[in-house]
Design brief:
Strand 3, helix 4 and strand 4 form a beta-alpha-beta unit. This protein has a six-stranded parallel beta sheet with strand order 3-4-2-1-5-6, with helices on both faces. It starts with 6 loop residues before the first strand and ends with a helix. Helix 1 packs across helix 2 and helix 3 packs parallel to helix 4. With 241 residues, it is α/β, with parallel strands linked by helices. The protein has eight helices and six strands.
Amino acid sequence: MSSLPQHIAIIMDGNGRWAEQHGLPRNEGHKAGTQAARKVVTHCRKLGIPHLTFYTFSKENWSRPREEISFLFDLLQAYLKDEMDSLLERDIRLQVLGEWSDLPFSLRQILRHVCSRSSHCRSMVVNLALNYSGREEILRACRKLMDQGLGPEQLTESHFAAQLDTAGQPDPDLIIRTSGEQRLSNFLLYQAAYSELYFTPVFWPDFDESHLQTALDVYAGRSRRFGGLEAPTAETSSSKT
């Protein structure tokens, strides 16, 4: 258990290419992607991983065709309605990262409803990064601090982190990106300072419990020094005596 991350963040990439590979419309890839999300949430809850973040819709995604965006929002609404009871039964709290104001009214309603209904849950937090931009999140945090009149000499990392969308949650220990791309794409830029990065060629709809476990095994084998020196093992220590 000590080798498990406390917070996993996932860039769910490859829905469209998965659909193309299977001779299907792009929307079918997005549908299949919701099944992958269900599997990952279930497996993380089973393992006792307390924080999970999905990069669901970025600010840059508004450049996609209007029909695809509309389908994505309708799909998310249906997913939330279907999953609400399950989230409550498993003591999972839903939270949203990003700016709500530009989202469709009906989606904002269901998000507020599920977030409110699950606010008492404590075993796990699932974050949806929606209309999210890492750079914008940093700018919003700066604006909040300026509004509070905090002087430069008073500013600390803890003050700044308290204004981020992830306030109160640990930074991601592990960031996973599917489909073979190897970049963060404006995702959790401040919080990712010491995250372990794991890239896989597997398209998101094909990402299942076994692929997640492979990522966790790789993570467990890494040495996280946070800029310091690796702690000596018992074997190394005994050899020096």
